[in-house]
Amino acid sequence: MLRVLIIEDDFILAEEWKEALTKTNKYSVNLVTTGSEGLVSINDEVPDIVVVDLYHKNDFGSLISDNGIRIIGPIRRSFPDIKIIAITGYNHNRKTVDTKTVVFNLGADYFLSKPFDVEKLLEKIEEAGSSILK
């Protein structure tokens, strides 16, 4: 069973993803809501796949942190075998292209723009899992 860590500030959304992944009986899933919690979780139990939301918002919908983007490099340097799926809802055309380039340069393996349905996330996780099991 592959271990997946989801770092997502929208806990309800993350719970939906966890439920879908768990139903496949292929993944054990841990959820955290901030990049710093993610780093602690990774050090406690190294996952096979990390799904990381790049930008986090407060309860009023205002952008408060880009700590998701800031942890990709440290994860890649410390744990080179972890597959990293970067996700963002920050979709402002040019910015999305720039963000995608940045996260790939930092070491992300995959990129998804929100909104997406859970099937799209499952496909990316399956793809990441397949590359691990080869």
Q: How many separate helices?
A: 5
Total separate domains:
1
Poorly predicted spans: none
Distance from N terminus to C terminus (CA atoms, Å) equals 14 Å
Please outline what is shown here.
With about 130 residues, the chain is an alpha/beta fold.
What does this protein look like?
The chain has 134 residues and is α/β, with parallel strands linked by helices. The protein has a single domain (2-133), classed as Response regulator (Rossmann fold), CATH 3.40.50.2300. The protein has helices at 11-23, 35-44, 67-78, 94-106, 118-133, and strands at 2-7, 27-32, 49-53, 56-57, 63-65, 83-88, 110-113. The strands form 2 sheets. A 5-stranded parallel beta sheet has the order 2-1-3-6-7, sandwiched between helices. A two-stranded antiparallel sheet has the order 4-5. The two termini are 14 Å apart.
What are the salient characteristics of this protein?
single chain; globular; 5 helices; two-stranded antiparallel sheet; 134 residues; 24% strand; 7 strands; five-stranded parallel beta sheet; Rossmann fold; alpha/beta
Chain-wise SSE layout:
Elements: E1 2-7, H1 11-23, E2 27-32, H2 35-44, E3 49-53, E4 56-57, E5 63-65, H3 67-78, E6 83-88, H4 94-106, E7 110-113, H5 118-133
Parallel strand pairs: 1-2, 1-3, 3-6, 6-7
Antiparallel strand pairs: 4-5
Helix pairs in contact: 2-3
